[in-house]
Structures are given as C-alpha cells and as structure tokens.
Amino acid sequence: xxxxxxxxxxxxxxxxxxxxxxxxxxxxxxxxxxxxxxxxxxxxxxxxxxxxxxxxxxxxxxxxxxxxxxxxxxxxxxxxxxxxxxxxxxxxxxxxxxxxxxxxxxxxxxxxxxxxxxxxxxxxxxxxxxxxxxxxxxxxxxx
Length: 143
Fold this sequence. Notes:
Blueprint: E1 3-5, E2 8-11, E3 18-21, E4 42-47, E5 53-58, E6 70-73, E7 81-85, E8 92-98, E9 105-112, E10 121-126, H1 130-133, E11 137-142
Parallel strand pairs: 4-10
Antiparallel strand pairs: 1-6, 2-3, 4-7, 5-6, 5-8, 8-9, 10-11
C-alpha cells in the first residue's frame, strides 16, 4: 500500500528557488498491528468502525511563493490496520472516513505530528456513517 500525493512545493532553507517533491511512497502493514508498538516517526490507522478510513498529511506553506502540500494514505478497510512513516516536513494529520454510498470522504478531525520527534502514533476510527456520521469518530494515542 502507498499514499497518493499532490505536488508539493517547498522552499529550500537558505535558497531562493523552490524544490518540487513528488511520488512519496509509504509502506503499509495490516493484521494485528494494533497491539504492536510504533517506532519514532510512524503512524498507524485502524478502521474499527463500519466505514473505511484514511489519513491526510499536510505540509505548511513555506516562506516565499511556494505552497504547502498534502499526501494521502490508501483507504484502510473496516476491521483492518495500516501503518506508514510520517512524511518529512508534515505537521498535521487529518483523519478521514469514506461514505458507504459514494467515493466522497468526510473529515473526523486532526492532530499535530512531527516525523523527527514523534514517538509514534496510533489512530483508531470508530462508529458508523448512518445519520450523517453522527457516531463516527476517532481516538489516538502516542506510543
């Protein structure tokens, strides 16, 4: 499994030109990974609700004309888990679910992350998408 990326433009430190970074690939794991400890700079998502879920990593806007970016994990099916490295430079992870009736996603919330200092994060989505996703939610823990 990997992540889908948008083009990310980041200003290089001390350099006026912007560098374009594309094609970030992360490896996912499945199974009973929910019980395993995560390592530094890693994030795991377990879909414990009745819907698939995914993560979106966000980069801030750097100084100058360049813009930030976003990268998505693949969808994690209900009852399974996926694990990825937190991409360098990302500061926020949005937790998202996917409606049963379409390919559209909804945002459950967000948390701050850092690939260099984060001890590892486990995110669990829960609930159902019925009644406008009134019971859908997420919880998270650092490992």
